[in-house]
Amino acid sequence: MWLLAHDREFFMPYKNFPWFKEQRVSAIVNVEEQSPGHFYWPELDVDLTAEIIEHPERFPNVAHST
After folding, report:
1. How many CB atoms sit inside 10 A of residue 57's CB?
2. Residue 65 has what pLDDT?
3. Terminal CA-to-CA distance of the chain, rounded, Å?
4. Contacts by 29-32 with C-beta closer than 8 Å and gap 24+?
């Protein structure tokens, strides 16, 4: 999955961001930037910072969808 924000592209592989894998496109594209670099998907109750998206290896505790 790709996220475009402020002329930046963020690649979000399902391996690191499993919450998006089985979701409807409408839920994925419904994203809010609540503060600079802080993104929230209200239908999925997922919030991520640009740092987490760019460096998922720094944040090894990944919650898994049920």
Report:
1. 7
2. 55
3. 19
4. 31/3
In contact, 9 and 3? CB cutoff 8 Å: yes
pTM recorded for the entire structure: 0.83
C-alpha triplet 13, 46, 37: angle, nearest 5° = 80
CA distance 66 to 55: 24
**What number is the average pLDDT over the span 4-33?**
94
Write down the pLDDT at residue 60: 76
Which distant-in-sequence residues (6+ apart) come within 8 Å of 65 by Cβ? 18, 19, 21, 22
Q: What is the pLDDT of residues 40-56, one digit of tens each?
A: 999 999 999 999 999 99
Q: Is 2 helix (H, G, I), strand (E, B) or coil?
A: strand
